[in-house]
Amino acid sequence: MPTIKGPVRAKIPPGTASGQRFRLKGYGVESARTGTPGDHYYRVEIVMPSRATADGRAAAEAFARLYERNPRASLPKGL
Q: HSE of 37 in the Cβ direction (CA atoms, 13 Å)?
């Protein structure tokens, strides 16, 4: 993760959703008044491939088998 203090390694926890925001404490801009560093915030953006391939479909099917329950079960039906 690039910051004003240089690159920092940030862990993205499992189950992170696109648009989720995280904080790196003490890696932001220093306060002009106190001299203490602020926090650096970053947002995760999950991007899907724009083109479907046979390998991509196989990987998605293998990934889907890892769910213990259907993640779409609570979505409305018949739209």
A: 12
Contact criterion met (CB below 8 Å) for 37 and 28:
yes
Given a contact cutoff of 8 angstroms between Cβ atoms, the answer to whether 21 and 45 are in contact is no
Alpha carbon separation from 36 to 1, 14, 39, 61 (Å, rounded)? 21, 32, 10, 48
DSSP letter assigned to residue 72: T
- Cα Rg, the chain, nearest whole Å: 19
Q: What is the pLDDT of residues 34-76, one digit of tens each?
A: 999 999 999 999 888 888 899 988 998 898 888 888 877 887 7
Rounded distance, CA 59 to CA 61, Å? 5
pLDDT of residue 54: 93
pLDDT given at position 71: 73
- Rounded distance between C-alpha atoms, residue 42 and residue 65, angstroms: 31
